[in-house]
Amino acid sequence: MMKLLSSPTSPFVRKVLIVLHETGQLDDVELVAVANTPTGPDATVAAANPVGKIPALIRDDGPALYDSRVICRFLDHRAKAGLYPENRLWDVLTLEATADGVMEAALLMTYEARLRPEDKQFPDWVEAQWTKIDRSLTALNSMWMSHLHGRLDMSHIAIAAALSYVDLRHDARNWRAGRDALAAWHKGFSERPSMLATQPQP
Q: Which residues form a coiled coil (predicted)?
Protein backbone atom coordinates (compact mmCIF):
# COMPACT_ATOMS: atom_id res chain seq x y z
CA MET A 1 0.00 0.00 0.00
CA MET A 2 1.21 3.50 -0.80
CA LYS A 3 1.76 5.99 2.02
CA LEU A 4 1.00 9.70 1.86
CA LEU A 5 3.06 11.84 4.22
CA SER A 6 0.64 14.53 5.26
CA SER A 7 -0.55 17.22 7.63
CA PRO A 8 -4.24 17.96 8.27
CA THR A 9 -3.98 21.67 7.50
CA SER A 10 -1.70 21.63 4.45
CA PRO A 11 -3.59 22.86 1.36
CA PHE A 12 -1.22 20.91 -0.86
CA VAL A 13 -2.03 17.72 1.02
CA ARG A 14 -5.74 18.51 0.83
CA LYS A 15 -5.47 18.83 -2.93
CA VAL A 16 -4.10 15.29 -3.10
CA LEU A 17 -6.76 13.98 -0.71
CA ILE A 18 -9.53 15.45 -2.84
CA VAL A 19 -8.06 13.70 -5.87
CA LEU A 20 -7.97 10.42 -3.95
CA HIS A 21 -11.65 10.84 -3.08
CA GLU A 22 -12.71 11.90 -6.56
CA THR A 23 -10.84 9.03 -8.26
CA GLY A 24 -11.81 6.28 -5.82
CA GLN A 25 -8.27 5.58 -4.65
CA LEU A 26 -8.51 6.49 -0.97
CA ASP A 27 -8.33 2.86 0.12
CA ASP A 28 -5.07 2.42 -1.80
CA VAL A 29 -3.19 4.95 0.30
CA GLU A 30 -2.32 5.01 3.99
CA LEU A 31 -2.29 8.54 5.42
CA VAL A 32 0.75 9.14 7.62
CA ALA A 33 0.59 12.33 9.68
CA VAL A 34 3.94 14.03 10.21
CA ALA A 35 5.07 17.02 12.22
CA ASN A 36 6.79 19.05 9.53
CA THR A 37 7.90 22.67 9.71
CA PRO A 38 10.01 24.86 7.41
CA THR A 39 12.72 25.01 10.06
CA GLY A 40 12.61 21.35 11.08
CA PRO A 41 11.41 18.82 8.51
CA ASP A 42 10.31 15.45 9.82
CA ALA A 43 12.96 12.77 9.26
CA THR A 44 10.50 10.61 7.31
CA VAL A 45 9.70 13.53 5.03
CA ALA A 46 13.35 14.41 4.49
CA ALA A 47 14.09 10.80 3.57
CA ALA A 48 11.26 10.74 1.02
CA ASN A 49 11.68 14.27 -0.32
CA PRO A 50 15.11 15.92 -0.15
CA VAL A 51 13.42 19.32 -0.31
CA GLY A 52 11.73 18.44 2.99
CA LYS A 53 8.17 19.33 2.01
CA ILE A 54 4.83 17.55 2.11
CA PRO A 55 2.98 15.90 0.55
CA ALA A 56 5.19 13.00 -0.41
CA LEU A 57 3.82 9.72 -1.75
CA ILE A 58 5.83 6.64 -0.85
CA ARG A 59 5.36 3.85 -3.38
CA ASP A 60 6.21 0.15 -3.11
CA ASP A 61 7.56 -0.05 -6.65
CA GLY A 62 9.69 3.06 -7.03
CA PRO A 63 11.11 6.19 -5.41
CA ALA A 64 8.77 8.48 -3.50
CA LEU A 65 6.92 11.11 -5.50
CA TYR A 66 6.74 14.65 -4.19
CA ASP A 67 5.22 18.01 -5.09
CA SER A 68 1.43 17.94 -5.14
CA ARG A 69 1.30 18.54 -8.89
CA VAL A 70 3.44 15.48 -9.57
CA ILE A 71 1.43 13.32 -7.15
CA CYS A 72 -1.93 14.46 -8.55
CA ARG A 73 -0.80 13.80 -12.10
CA PHE A 74 0.39 10.33 -11.07
CA LEU A 75 -2.89 9.51 -9.31
CA ASP A 76 -4.91 10.75 -12.26
CA HIS A 77 -2.87 8.58 -14.62
CA ARG A 78 -3.18 5.60 -12.28
CA ALA A 79 -6.98 5.88 -12.15
CA LYS A 80 -7.40 7.03 -15.77
CA ALA A 81 -9.68 9.69 -14.33
CA GLY A 82 -9.22 12.36 -17.01
CA LEU A 83 -8.48 15.22 -14.64
CA TYR A 84 -5.91 16.53 -17.13
CA PRO A 85 -7.93 16.43 -20.38
CA GLU A 86 -5.80 16.78 -23.50
CA ASN A 87 -8.11 19.32 -25.13
CA ARG A 88 -7.83 21.69 -22.14
CA LEU A 89 -4.44 20.63 -20.81
CA TRP A 90 -2.64 23.98 -20.95
CA ASP A 91 -5.54 25.80 -19.32
CA VAL A 92 -5.73 23.16 -16.59
CA LEU A 93 -1.99 23.30 -15.89
CA THR A 94 -2.01 27.11 -15.84
CA LEU A 95 -4.90 27.21 -13.41
CA GLU A 96 -3.34 24.56 -11.19
CA ALA A 97 -0.13 26.59 -11.12
CA THR A 98 -2.15 29.69 -10.21
CA ALA A 99 -3.84 27.84 -7.37
CA ASP A 100 -0.52 26.53 -6.10
CA GLY A 101 0.86 30.06 -6.19
CA VAL A 102 -2.05 31.23 -4.05
CA MET A 103 -1.42 28.43 -1.57
CA GLU A 104 2.30 29.16 -1.41
CA ALA A 105 1.74 32.87 -0.79
CA ALA A 106 -0.89 32.15 1.86
CA LEU A 107 1.44 29.68 3.58
CA LEU A 108 4.28 32.21 3.61
CA MET A 109 1.97 34.74 5.25
CA THR A 110 1.07 32.16 7.88
CA TYR A 111 4.71 31.26 8.51
CA GLU A 112 5.66 34.92 8.88
CA ALA A 113 3.11 35.39 11.65
CA ARG A 114 3.76 32.09 13.40
CA LEU A 115 7.48 31.49 13.10
CA ARG A 116 9.11 34.93 13.19
CA PRO A 117 9.39 36.94 16.38
CA GLU A 118 7.02 39.89 16.20
CA ASP A 119 9.83 42.45 16.10
CA LYS A 120 11.36 40.73 13.07
CA GLN A 121 8.19 40.42 10.99
CA PHE A 122 8.12 42.30 7.69
CA PRO A 123 4.64 43.77 7.03
CA ASP A 124 5.50 44.96 3.52
CA TRP A 125 6.61 41.45 2.58
CA VAL A 126 3.35 40.02 3.97
CA GLU A 127 1.36 42.52 1.91
CA ALA A 128 3.36 41.57 -1.18
CA GLN A 129 2.27 37.96 -0.67
CA TRP A 130 -1.34 39.04 -0.32
CA THR A 131 -1.05 41.08 -3.51
CA LYS A 132 -0.14 37.86 -5.36
CA ILE A 133 -3.26 36.19 -3.98
CA ASP A 134 -5.43 39.23 -4.70
CA ARG A 135 -4.29 39.45 -8.33
CA SER A 136 -4.74 35.73 -8.85
CA LEU A 137 -8.28 35.64 -7.49
CA THR A 138 -9.24 38.68 -9.55
CA ALA A 139 -7.95 36.92 -12.65
CA LEU A 140 -9.94 33.77 -11.81
CA ASN A 141 -13.10 35.80 -11.24
CA SER A 142 -12.76 37.84 -14.42
CA MET A 143 -11.26 35.39 -16.90
CA TRP A 144 -11.82 31.79 -15.90
CA MET A 145 -15.37 31.31 -14.63
CA SER A 146 -16.57 29.58 -17.80
CA HIS A 147 -13.81 27.01 -17.32
CA LEU A 148 -14.67 26.52 -13.66
CA HIS A 149 -18.30 25.85 -14.57
CA GLY A 150 -17.22 23.14 -17.01
CA ARG A 151 -16.48 19.45 -16.50
CA LEU A 152 -14.44 18.60 -13.40
CA ASP A 153 -10.70 18.70 -13.92
CA MET A 154 -7.61 19.23 -11.80
CA SER A 155 -7.91 23.01 -11.88
CA HIS A 156 -11.23 22.90 -10.03
CA ILE A 157 -9.73 20.79 -7.25
CA ALA A 158 -6.61 22.95 -6.91
CA ILE A 159 -8.52 26.24 -6.87
CA ALA A 160 -11.04 24.95 -4.34
CA ALA A 161 -8.24 23.79 -2.04
CA ALA A 162 -6.50 27.15 -2.36
CA LEU A 163 -9.59 29.21 -1.62
CA SER A 164 -10.45 27.03 1.37
CA TYR A 165 -6.96 27.53 2.78
CA VAL A 166 -7.28 31.30 2.42
CA ASP A 167 -10.55 30.98 4.35
CA LEU A 168 -8.84 28.91 7.03
CA ARG A 169 -5.86 31.17 7.67
CA HIS A 170 -6.71 34.60 6.24
CA ASP A 171 -10.47 34.90 6.43
CA ALA A 172 -10.21 38.47 7.73
CA ARG A 173 -8.91 39.53 4.31
CA ASN A 174 -12.39 38.87 2.85
CA TRP A 175 -11.28 37.59 -0.56
CA ARG A 176 -14.93 37.33 -1.65
CA ALA A 177 -15.42 41.10 -1.79
CA GLY A 178 -15.96 42.09 -5.42
CA ARG A 179 -15.69 38.48 -6.60
CA ASP A 180 -19.26 37.26 -6.46
CA ALA A 181 -18.86 34.75 -9.29
CA LEU A 182 -15.83 33.04 -7.78
CA ALA A 183 -17.39 33.09 -4.30
CA ALA A 184 -20.59 31.45 -5.58
CA TRP A 185 -18.59 28.81 -7.45
CA HIS A 186 -16.52 28.00 -4.36
CA LYS A 187 -19.63 27.72 -2.20
CA GLY A 188 -21.15 25.21 -4.60
CA PHE A 189 -17.95 23.23 -5.10
CA SER A 190 -17.40 23.03 -1.34
CA GLU A 191 -20.56 20.92 -1.06
CA ARG A 192 -18.99 18.04 -2.99
CA PRO A 193 -18.46 14.93 -0.82
CA SER A 194 -14.71 15.07 -1.48
CA MET A 195 -14.55 18.61 -0.10
CA LEU A 196 -16.70 17.86 2.94
CA ALA A 197 -14.59 14.79 3.75
CA THR A 198 -11.32 16.73 3.66
CA GLN A 199 -12.23 19.93 5.46
CA PRO A 200 -9.15 21.28 7.24
CA GLN A 201 -9.28 21.95 10.95
CA PRO A 202 -7.75 25.15 12.37
A: none
Nearest in space to 19 (alpha carbons), one of 94, 70, 72, 88: 72
Question: Element (H or E) spanning 123, and its range?
Answer: helix 123-143
Give the tens place of pLDDT for each residue, 138-153.
999 999 999 999 999 9
Q: Which of 79, 100, 119 is the last residue of a domain?
A: 79
Please answer whether residues 84 and 73 qualify as being in contact, where contact means their C-beta atoms are separated by less than 8 angstroms. Answer: yes
The full DSSP string for 19-36 is HHHHTT-GGGEEEEE---
Q: State which residues form the domain around 9.
A: 2-79
Do 133 and 100 have their domain in common? yes
Does a structural domain hold residue 185?
A: yes
Exposure letters 51-68 (e unless 16+ CB within 10 A, then b): ebbbbbbbeeeeebbbbb
Of 46, 173, 155, which Cα lies nearest the Cα of 106? 173
Low-confidence ranges of the chain (pLDDT < 50): none
Residue 202 counted as domain residue: no
